């Protein structure tokens, strides 16, 4: 089965809140980044491989994407948010929701939470957030995502990525609405 709901939005735009709301509305399997702790590193590795293919402009394998999505009723947050056009093409009948937050507010929130945890230069590799195996895998594999989104420098490139991301999302929505 494919997801019925696709939420396109970057982390820190309300993705966890909408994932919780979708659960309350009866969607049993909702992907949010926190699923990494439940589903294990293998699924994360699959997403990372898909991202690397996208990054390297390799032939995108819709079948691999569909396989990763098939067990979820709804998807939100990373990594799926980075595959908006590909997911819309793979699941054209899904309902689309776009989450967007004021850019300045998003930048402050992201830099003080996710970037602070994933930043390789923060000097805190053993923070309590990364005390279990899956969280450590997330920290280690965060690098391809930080590279793809921010060239490993959120403070310098985060705002540009935010603008590009929502420009792409708006274009996809316009195409779907036609």
Structural notes for this entry:
There is one protein chain. The protein has a single domain, classed as Rossmann fold (3-Layer(aba) Sandwich), CATH 3.40.50. The protein has nine helices and four strands; from the N terminus they run βαβαααβαβαααα. It has helices at residues 15-24, 35-39, 41-55, 62-69, 84-90, 103-112, 114-118, 133-150, 154-177, and strands at 5-8, 30-31, 74-75, 95-98. Helix 3 (41-55) packs parallel to helix 8. It is globular and about 40 Å long. It holds the Pfam family Sulfotransfer_4. InterPro entries: P-loop_NTPase, Sulfotransfer_4.
CATH topology: Rossmann fold
Looking at the structure, what is the overall shape? globular
Order of strands, main sheet, comes to 2-3-1-4
Q: What value does the Rg take, in angstroms?
A: 16 Å
Average residue-wise pLDDT: 83
The stretches of 5 or more residues where confidence is low (pLDDT under 50) are 125-131
Strand percentage lies at 5-15%
- Tell me the name of the CATH homologous superfamily: P-loop containing nucleotide triphosphate hydrolases
Could you state the order of secondary-structure elements as H and E? EHEHHHEHEHHHH
Structural class: alpha/beta
Main β sheet profile = 4 strands, parallel
CATH architecture: 3-Layer(aba) Sandwich
Would you state the CATH class?
A: Alpha Beta
Distance between the termini: 26 Å
Q: Work out the helix count.
A: 9
How many domains? Answer: 1
Number of strands: 4
Helix content: 55-70%
For this structure, the quaternary state is single chain
Protein name: P-loop containing nucleoside triphosphate hydrolase protein
InterPro entries: P-loop_NTPase, Sulfotransfer_4
Pfam family, one: Sulfotransfer_4
């Amino acid at each position: 089965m494919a997801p019925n709901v696709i939420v396109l939005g970057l982390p820190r735009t309300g993705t966890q809140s909408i994932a919780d709301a979708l659960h309350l509305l009866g969607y049993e399997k909702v992907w949010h980044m926190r699923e990494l702790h439940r589903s294990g590193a293998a699924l994360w590795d699959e997403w990372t491989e898909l991202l690397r293919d996208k990054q390297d402009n390799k032939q995108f394998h819709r079948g691999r994407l569909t396989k990763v999505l098939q067990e979820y009723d709804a998807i939100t947050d990373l990594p799926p948010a980075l595959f908006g056009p590909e997911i819309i093409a793979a699941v054209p009948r899904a309902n689309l929701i776009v989450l967007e937050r004021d850019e300045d507010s998003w930048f402050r929130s992201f830099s003080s939470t996710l970037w602070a945890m994933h930043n390789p230069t923060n000097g805190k590799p053993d923070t309590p957030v990364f005390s279990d195996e899956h969280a450590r895998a997330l920290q280690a594999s965060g690098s391809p995502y930080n590279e793809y989104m921010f060239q490993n420098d959120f403070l310098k490139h985060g705002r540009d990525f935010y603008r590009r991301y929502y420009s792409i999302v708006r274009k996809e929505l316009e195409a779907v609405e036609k």
